[in-house]
Each structure stands twice: as structure tokens, then as C-alpha cells.
Amino acid sequence: MQGKELNEQIRQSLERLIDSTDELRDLDQELGDGDLGITISAGSKAVIAALEQLDDSATPSEIARASAKAFANANPSTMAALVAGALLTGSRIWADTSDVTVADAQAFIAAGAENISQRGKAQVGDKTILDGLAAISEALVGQEDGTVANAVAIDAARDAVERTTKLQSRRGRASWLQERSIGLADPGVVALLRFVEAWQAASQPRA
């Protein structure tokens, strides 16, 4: 997937992701401060606007950097900072990439997950978006076909939502609930699932 197509794919995916704003707000009100819906909505709209301004010749790395800057500037939340940092880290992975393959996407996700782990001081099992990213990254190893990769990523994200719902939250405001967080879906992992679902939907041929 070259730059122009990647740009369009991201924008179309984010337009669909915005539809999950209310769901993510409600989930975050149970485990956090309820601002995730706003973070995702404002960040998505900002990225869409930024990518619309890019020239068709923009490289995948430039697109990722523009996305990171726009998402970070859209609002001051912790999630926005973590997502922007992950995107910026991934952009470096794509420094010499002109045509993104599934392997390139896997490397991008793995690097972004590592950045979130370091900046957020989180580990897999802490019940954060990292659980979803790590699951998708692992599931994409060795995949080559984009359509199959989309389905594999969704399955991995869904499994991460189900698995982490049974865990106790150990990072951020959600950790304040302690045992009461068990049985509640982590909004960050759900947001990631909604994004990969939106990515798949945006990948479908137009009727």
C-alpha cells in the first residue's frame, strides 16, 4: 500500500471509528474519567484534516508523522500522548518504506506497542491498549495477504477484549477501582478493536 492509498485508507477508517465515540465514552466512564470518546473523536477528526492537506506524494513515514502530530495536538489526554508517541515511533520504522506490506504494518505495530509499554510503564496483562496491540502484532507475524491479515487482526483484538475483561486494571485511573475493574471491558482495547474493524470495512471494495 503506497502513500496515496494509505492516506485514503486511514481517513476512511477514522471516519468510521468516530461512530464509536459514544460507546467509548460510556466504557471509559465505568473505568476512567470518561474522556476517551472525546479523545478518539477529536483526534480522528484532526488526523483526517491533516492528511487531507498532504500531497499525494507523501510517503508512509510522512503520513504517520502527520497523524501523530495531529492526534497529539487535538487534546491533552494521556491516551492522545501515548497514541501519538506510538505513531511517531512507527514512522521511524517506515523511514525507507514506500509501499507498506503486512510485514511493514506488523513492524510498525510492534514498535508502537513497545513505545507505549515504555512511556506508559505498562506490561501485557495490565489491562491496557498494550494488550490489544501486542496480540495483533503477534498474530500478524508471518502473514502476507492483506485480507487475511485484516481478519486475523480483528480476531486477535476481539480475543484481547475478552481476555482483559477478566483481568484487574493495573494502570491509570482504571487501577483505582482495583478488584471492581474485573468484569469491565478496557476502553482502550475496545477502541483498538473498533479501529481494526473500521480498517477492514474501509478495505472493502466500493459497490
Key traits:
207 residues; mainly alpha; Serine Threonine Protein Phosphatase 5, Tetratricopeptide repeat
Structure commentary:
This protein is an all-alpha fold. It has a single domain, classed as Serine Threonine Protein Phosphatase 5, Tetratricopeptide repeat. Helices cover 69% and strands 0% of the residues. α5 crosses α6, α6 runs antiparallel to α7 and α7 packs antiparallel against α8. It is globular. The chain starts with a helix and ends with a helix. The mean pLDDT is 93.
Précis, in short:
It is globular, with a radius of gyration of 16 Å. With about 210 residues, it is mainly α.
Order of helices and strands: HHHHHHHHH
Number of domains: 1
Sheet with most strands: none
Low-confidence stretches: none
Q: At the third CATH level, what is the topology name?
A: Serine Threonine Protein Phosphatase 5, Tetratricopeptide repeat
Give the overall shape: globular
Instruction: Assign the CATH superfamily.
Output: DhaL domain
Q: What is the C-level CATH assignment?
A: Mainly Alpha
* Residues in helices, as a percent range: 55-70%
Determine the structural class based on helices, strands and strand pairing: mainly alpha
